[in-house]
Amino acid sequence: MIFFKQRAIRKLQKKLKAMQHFREHNQPKDDVLKKEMQMYHKLAGIWKSLIGKKKFPFAQDMVAECLRASARLDDTEAQYQLGRMLMDEGRMREALQKEGLFASVGNERKMRECFEEAHALLEKSLDLGHIAAKRLSGLCFINGWGVDMDRERGFERVVESIEQEKAWDKLPQIFASIGLNKPEFFEALTQRRGRNQG
Questions:
Q1: How far is residue 157's CA from residue 135's CA, in Å, rounded to a whole number?
Q2: Which residues of 144-183 are buried (b: 16+ CB within 10 A; e: fewer)?
Q3: 50, 59 Cβ separation under 8 angstroms
Q4: High-pLDDT (> 90) share of the chain, %
Q5: How far is residue 120 CA from its own chain's centroid?
Q6: CA-CA 20 to 30 A from 53: which of 3, 7, 117, 172?
Q7: pLDDT tens sequence across 79-108
Q8: Contact 47, 59 (CB under 8 A)
Q9: Other Cβ atoms closer than 10 A to 67
Q10: Cβ contacts of residue 152 below 8 Å, gap of 6+?
Q11: Which Gene3D superfamilies does its entry note (predicted)?
């Protein structure tokens, strides 16, 4: 099984190198770029399946690099996924800093780097219209993840994402999925919706 995955990785990497070389010397069509993005996602999926395998200690890093390469091609889904991964790592490092036992200058620097890159990716993705990126960015402002806490701005982004998706009927499910299923958040969001409609 692992042999076939290694073979698939080599094959995809060879194709991606050829596509990258072509892109550097020519102006590719949109469908060629879309195919390249799909190949990066496929490669990321293979690497993701190898996380935790002894022979592949850097599988998680390779997933991030595949997404990073696809994100450079303005792939909004890759920007969102990588932004979410980096946001999770930044939050973990922030918790380590607050706990104190594992706090260090290096950890704090890595935390800042993760948050900065995550926010840059999320901003780029939401500028291109990615709904989940807008929602996650709103959560970052609501909870103060890597940015100064600004609940007003955060709620505004969450409301915009719900309106963009036209999903007010799915509000309880959305709240549960993003962790805002507390009554005060629900009330604040419905007030924002009322102001936006008024």
A1: 6
A2: ebbeeeeeebbbbbbbbbbeeeeeeeeeeebbeebebeee
A3: yes
A4: 71
A5: 10
A6: 117
A7: 999 999 999 999 999 999 999 889 999 999
A8: yes
A9: 27
A10: none
A11: Tetratricopeptide repeat domain
